[in-house]
Structure formats: structure tokens, C-alpha cells
Amino acid sequence: MRLSSVVLAGGAVLVLAGAAAAVAAEGTPTFAKDVAPILYENCVSCHRPNHLAPMSLITYDDTRPWARAVRSKVESREMPPWGADTSVRTYKNDSSLTDEEIKTIAAWVDAGSPRGNDADLPEVPQFTEGWSIGEPDLIFTMLEPFKVPADGTVPYSYVTVPTNLPADTWISAHEYRPGDKRVVHHVISQVLEDDGMPATGEVKLERDRTRSRARGSRVGGYVPNRLGDVYEDGVAVRLPKGADIEAQMHYTTIGEEAWDQSSWGVVVTREPDSSIRRAGGGQVANLGFRIEPNNPAYEVTASRKIDEDTYLSTMMPHMHVRGKSAKYVIVYPDGTEEVALWVPNYDFNWQLNYELEEPIFMPAGSQLKTIFTYDNSTNNRFNPDPSSEVRWGDQTWEEMMLGYFGTVEAPADDN
Ligand code: HEC
């Protein structure tokens, strides 16, 4: 509701500015007819008022001052952010532009960024202010704000957020919303049954740094610039009665004191019946690596056995600033291999969750293998110290090797 008024306000400005806008020659791309559809489809999920990106790209007046920047970012393929090689696999959430779309934007900028006829504008997508999953049905918020000091390193902290759910509840989307996104580096949240046991899955990650009592699956994890997760139709995740959300919070300092009180929003779906497919997932991790100093492509691998027939649906590699590339490979019981994800240029700032267009069947006994490389050389401009041997650790100058993955049950008619 609130956003539509923002859009209306933008629309009003648009009318006033109309007189000054350039008139397009025949055949020249215009904002209304040619450019807005591309932006609405691929950019405004982040580029809308008060959301992830620094500016809105919804109206002509929003976009016009950014025309040259838009052209340069789409031509360099820095925008929209996307890391996976789509000649290997295709992904549902791939927002990367086609060559044709990039040419259209370039031609529009070359022609002086004409406005065109507002009657040609496509319908403006509607958003819920502050959430990418739509209006959440339930919002769980940290009971107390967390004080982040001005300077220094903040050790991981674990917060427990009770859901007080009176009954098992099935959700179709979830999203984590930072209280102060300047200080939230990342969040890994898990669902605990009311007896403190994990709701689903098991992860043996915490074994040598146990402060967490969780071994469960995530809801609404967070890394920089991350939108919420919406499951496909007919897929749902169970939040058990009385569950707690336990979150591992990683805060970074910004030179001034800050307070964070984060929230989790979930969209509730219908009761599960025989047609609903449960979503699950886990992590493939290697905790024992030692990345050599000055090595521009140090490889670390991990693998995990898949115990039950399931479909691989999503993948999200997590490394820190030395992360260079990430590959996920399914090794079938007969030894044949299939690449499910190849991210040739991993970017710490854009840790996307890649959603397979076609989930891949992993029969029981398959291995899910991850092969990550790290650039610990001076070529890596984000490298804080190429001369150090780097091991697993919480902080940004240490590293992680975590391959998150999501699964969905086989469709009912497969069983
Ligand atoms: C997943 C969210 C997301 C999507 C989708 C996205 N952007 Fe961005 N964009 C951002 C964020 C966040 C920033 C600021 C941080 C940065 O520059 O890395 C940004 C920065 C930019 C900038 C640079 C702004 C500046 O300050 O110079 C341009 C231009 C831009 N985006 C254009 C686009 C266009 C055009 C599209 C679609 C074709 C798009 N973006 C899609 C999140 C997104």
C-alpha cells in the first residue's frame, strides 16, 4: 500500500517534467516503450525507493540522471549482478540481460535518452515496502537490540528469537531484514524445534567451534545485497510448533556506535497435503584447509553424500574476500558427473542463491561435490594480506568454504 503512494508521487513528478524531455525520432528506442520494460523485469526488484540499491529506476525522472551510468554498468555486465555461467545451466532467477537488451539501452542513451509516450509505459510492478517477498504474514524480531561498538572486531553472537507458533506452520517464502544494514555482515539462521533440536537436515559444521546449539536448516540467511527467498509453487518449509529461530549474527564496526534489531518475515502457505513438496537443504563444507600465501588459485574441495532420493534446487557458495570461483558437481552412484553450478568470478558483495530452472535429480548415494578456488595473491585487490596462510575463521580476513544447497522432494507423481 505504502509503496503505491510512492509510485504515484513519482508519477506526478513525471508529468511536470514532461515538457522538457527530448522528442524521439522515428525508430529510436524510448524510455516508455523500450527501456522501462527491461528495467521493470531486471532491475527494479532492487532499484526502487528505500530498497537495496542506491537509486530507483522506476520512473523516467528517476532514471534519466543515471542514463550513462546505466549504460556503462549493463555493458560491462556489472549490473544486474549475476555470477553463474549460463552456458552450463539455466537459473530461474537469472536477471542478466540479453545482448539485444543491452543494445537497446545503449541506443537509447546515444539518442539523448528520450522519454517517449507515457501511454506506452508498462504497468509498474507493485512492491511491498521493505520486503522483496511481499507482505509477510508473520514477522519475528530480535527481542532486544544489539549494540555494535564503534570500532574493533565483534565476535559472532548467537541470538534466539522465539516464534511462539501454536502449531506447525508451513511457509512459502522467507526474508531476513537487517535493523541496520550498515553493520550486518552476514547472518546464518536456523530453525530449532521447541526441544532445541533442529527442524530438518543435519550439519556437522559447528563441531569445533560450538557455541550454537543448532544443526538445522536456514530461514532467511543474509549476506550483503540479498533479497528474500520465495519457493516455487507447491514447495514449502515447515516451521515447527514452538520453534525458535537461532541466528548467528556477524556484525562489523563502522566507526560509530550502532544498534541492530533485525527481523525475519515469512509468508504462510496452506497446510501440507499429498501434493506439497518439502524443501530442505544443507551445506557442503571443508573446515580444514590452509590456503597458501601468494597462491592466485588455491583449490579447496568438499563433498557430501546424499542419503535419500531428492532434487537439487538451489546453490549458494559462501567464501570471503579471497573467494575466486565456485563449482558444484553431482557425482552419481555410477561415478558419472554433472556440473550444477559454475561461478567463474565469485564476488563477495554479490552472494547470490542460484535457483535451477530445472531441479536436478540426485538419487540416494550420489555425492554433492564443491570445488572452490581462492586468490591469495596481490592480483586480488580485496586481499588484506597475500603473505599469510589463511584458514577457516569467522572474520573477513579469514576464510570459509561453505556450499549451501537447497533441495525439494520428488513431485508426488514421481513416487
Ligand atoms: C540484486 C539487486 C540489484 C539488481 C537486480 C540490480 N541492481 Fe544495480 N545496484 C544494486 C546495488 C546494491 C548497487 C550499489 C552498490 C554497487 O554499486 O555495487 C547498484 C548500483 C547500480 C549502478 C551504479 C550506481 C552508482 O552509484 O554509480 C547502476 C548504474 C545500476 N546499479 C544499474 C542497474 C541496472 C540498469 C539494473 C538492471 C538491468 C540493475 N542495476 C540491477 C543492486 C541491484
Textual characterization of the structure:
By secondary structure, this protein is α+β, with helices and mostly antiparallel strands. The protein folds into three domains: about 1-120, no CATH class; about 130-270, Sandwich (Jelly Rolls); about 275-415, Sandwich (Jelly Rolls). It is built from five helices and 20 strands. The protein has helices at about 1-15, 30-40, 60-65, 65-75, 100-110, and strands at about 140, 145-150, 155-160, 170-175, 185-190, 230, 235-240, 245-250, 260, 265-270, 275-285, 290, 300-305, 310-320, 325-330, 335-345, 355-360, 365-375, 390, 400-410. Helix 2 (about 30-40) crosses helix 5 (about 100-110) and helix 4 (about 65-75) runs antiparallel to helix 5 (about 100-110). The chain starts with a helix and ends in a 7-residue tail after the last strand. The model is unreliable at about 1-20 and about 195-215 (pLDDT under 50). Heme C binds near residues 69, 79, 81 and 97. The site of heme C has 19 residues, from helix 4.
CATH class of the largest domain reads Mainly Beta
Total beta-strand segments: 20
CATH fold node name of the largest domain = Jelly Rolls
Beta content comes to 25-35%
For the sheet with most strands, the description reads: 9 strands, mixed
Taken together, the total number of domains comes to: 3
Order of helices and strands: HHHHHEEEEEEEEEEEEEEEEEEEE
Span between termini: 43 Å
Which stretches are poorly predicted, pLDDT < 50 over at least 5 residues? 1-22, 196-217
CATH architectural designation of the largest domain: Sandwich
Q: How large is the count of helical segments?
A: 5
Helix content: 10-25%
* Morphology call: globular
Q: Supply the helix-strand structural class.
A: alpha+beta
Bound molecules: heme C
Mean pLDDT level: 83
Radius of gyration: 23 Å
